[in-house]
Write a sequence for this structure.
């Protein structure tokens, strides 16, 4: 049994989707980020960085793993699924996983902060992070023009990138001119494990269905978490 400490964020959903794909039994420990539950001594003993997600593998002497990419690799290697075992195949998956960890996630995350959460609109910062997010999504689109998935068969690389790319509307990034990315987004969205993983836990907002008022309320709540993080750094 695996304990998953998480919240309804792209990084959190990476792990719940992977657990669903792998068919591993897990318990859901949902942390309220707005209340700072990720900063409690109990959770910091699992992840000293105080961020979700993290897991505790009860079947492996309560082994704790933090950082979403590290968790995905651990789960893939534990089960022998969602990542090839040969050196070249494994490297291809890890390249695209690192692409997400070092690029897509950080850039879209900063786009979210400046476009949605900061009380003042700093247009240069918004343009910078939306532009870089779009460039990275364009890289995915170009690769997917010639590949069904990012690295051979469906893998943790697809899960990691999809969990972020699917939220492009929240970052204010238009992908209507990226047909191959759209095809890939929809194909993974239709996977039963993706649908189950996105409900573990479910997001409070769906931009495809919810209106501007609900989006603003969600952003206002998220701004509290951003400000909390800034206070913790000062």
């Amino acid at each position: 049994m695996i304990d998953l400490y998480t919240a309804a964020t792209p990084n959190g959903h990476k792990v719940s989707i992977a657990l669903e794909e792998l068919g591993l039994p897990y318990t859901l420990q949902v942390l309220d980020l707005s209340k700072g539950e990720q900063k409690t001594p109990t959770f910091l003993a699992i992840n000293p960085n105080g961020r979700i997600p993290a897991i505790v593998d009860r079947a492996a002497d309560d082994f704790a793993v933090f950082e979403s990419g590290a968790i995905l690799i651990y789960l893939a290697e534990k089960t022998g699924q969602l990542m090839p075992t040969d050196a070249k195949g494994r490297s291809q998956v890890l390249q695209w996983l690192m692409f997400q960890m070092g690029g897509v996630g950080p850039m879209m995350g900063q786009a979210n902060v400046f476009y949605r959460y900061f009380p003042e609109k700093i247009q240069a910062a918004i343009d910078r992070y939306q532009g870089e997010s779009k460039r990275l999504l364009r890289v995915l689109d170009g690769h997917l023009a010639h590949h069904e998935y990012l690295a051979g068969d469906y893998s943790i690389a697809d899960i990691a990138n999809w969990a972020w790319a699917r939220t492009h509307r929240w970052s204010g990034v238009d992908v209507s001119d990226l047909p191959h990315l759209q095809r890939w987004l929809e194909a993974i969205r239709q996977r039963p494990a993706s649908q189950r993983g996105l409900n573990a836990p479910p997001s409070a907002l769906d931009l495809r269905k919810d209106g501007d008022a609900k989006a603003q309320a969600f952003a206002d709540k998220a701004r509290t978490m951003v400000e909390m993080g800034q206070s913790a750094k000062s």
User: Anything to note?
Assistant: The first strand starts at residue 2 and ends at 6. Confidence is low (pLDDT under 50) at residues 230-234. Residues 87-117 form the longest helix (31 residues).
